[in-house]
Amino acid sequence: MDVRIGIQNSPRELGFETSQSAAEVEQAVAAALAGQSPLLKLTDEKGTVYVVPSAALAYVEIGSEESRRVGFVA
């Protein structure tokens, strides 16, 4: 699943693919925005951990879980 995170006062966004489900990512974002956690911590498919302070979150875009098709569609 593709995840993009916008960070306040930063012209670039953080984008990566994760093996976590959409529900897990949404739950982590909701906990960070509700003040239950001071940090948003997500892991990509390669095992890299991304940690973003909750106060710096501008937006989080959660992509679809659908895998990309390879080849031509008839």
Question: Any overview of this molecule?
Answer:
Pfam families: DUF3107. The protein is of the alpha+beta class and 74 residues long. The protein has a single domain, classed as SH3 type barrels (Roll), CATH 2.30.30. It is built from one helix and five strands; from the N terminus they run ββαβββ. It has one helix spanning 22-33, and strands at 2-7, 13-17, 39-43, 49-53, 57-62. A three-stranded antiparallel beta sheet has the order 2-1-5, covered by helices on one side. Strands 3-4 form a two-stranded antiparallel ribbon.
Key descriptive features of the protein:
alpha+beta, 74 residues, SH3 type barrels, single chain, DUF3107, 36% strand, three-stranded antiparallel β-sheet, elongated, two-stranded antiparallel ribbon
What is the fold's blueprint, element by element?
Layout: E1 2-7, E2 13-17, H1 22-33, E3 39-43, E4 49-53, E5 57-62
Antiparallel strand pairs: 1-2, 1-5, 3-4
Pfam families: DUF3107
InterPro entries: DUF3107 (IPR021456)
Low-confidence stretches: none
CATH fold group:
SH3 type barrels
* CATH class category name: Mainly Beta
Number of DSSP E strands: 5
Order of helices and strands: EEHEEE
Tell me roughly what share of residues is in helical segments.
10-25%
What is the count of structural domains? 1
Characterize the largest beta sheet: strand count, sense, and whether it forms a barrel: 3 strands, antiparallel
Mass-distribution shape: elongated
Structural class: alpha+beta
CATH architecture: Roll
Pfam families: DUF3107
